Known about the structure:
The chain is α/β, with parallel strands linked by helices. It folds into two domains: 4-77, 2-Layer Sandwich (GMP Synthetase, Chain A, domain 3), CATH 3.30.300.20; 82-166, 2-Layer Sandwich (Ribosomal Protein S8, Chain: A, domain 1), CATH 3.30.1370.50. The protein is built from seven helices and seven strands. The chain has helices at 4-13, 38-45, 50-62, 64-67, 79-101, 112-122, 148-152; strands at 20-26, 29-35, 71-76, 105-106, 128-133, 140-145, 165-166. The strands form two sheets. Strands 5-6-4-7 form a four-stranded mixed sheet. The chain has a three-stranded mixed sheet with strand order 1-2-3. Helix 5 crosses helix 6. It is elongated. The two termini are 31 Å apart. The relative contact order is 0.12.
Amino acid sequence: MIESSFLEKLLGFLGIEEFTIEQEDVEDGVIVHIMVPEEGSGVLIGRRGETLQALQAIVRLGMREQLGDTRVTIDINHYKEGRLATAEDVAKQAVDEVLETGKPVTLPYLSSEERRYVHMLMSENEGVQTQSSGEGRFRRLTVFPAGYFEESGQSPTEEKPIEVADRSEVAE
């Protein structure tokens, strides 16, 4: 568990005075749910969750001796929970399209955490395989029909452009 006093001080430095903190132990770590008034959530979440990712990194660094290898996820007003649900919906739509057309589908921007989640979900579906390619903000996850790389002769690690249905208009 994370010391609440560390989080309370950090939120205080950010000018957040009203909040509640709940911690949840999960299989691969701990989720820290921070609830703040709606008008304060944007400051903590930022565009595409970038401020929230930075806040999470600060907590991991500040608490690394106490936490060791424990995976820590910070969630503000259930933002990440909602993003993961959206990522799952978009991924399921992509799977349906891939299975129907036999062509790869590239998903819109997903954070590294969202991509990881989708890769784990899709690993349970024998009809598709996934691959991430690109760097930084341009990194995208593509859903391929199972066996695509064997049939196309392309290596799954090659960074060649692939004709795909673009889903970049879907989410933010």
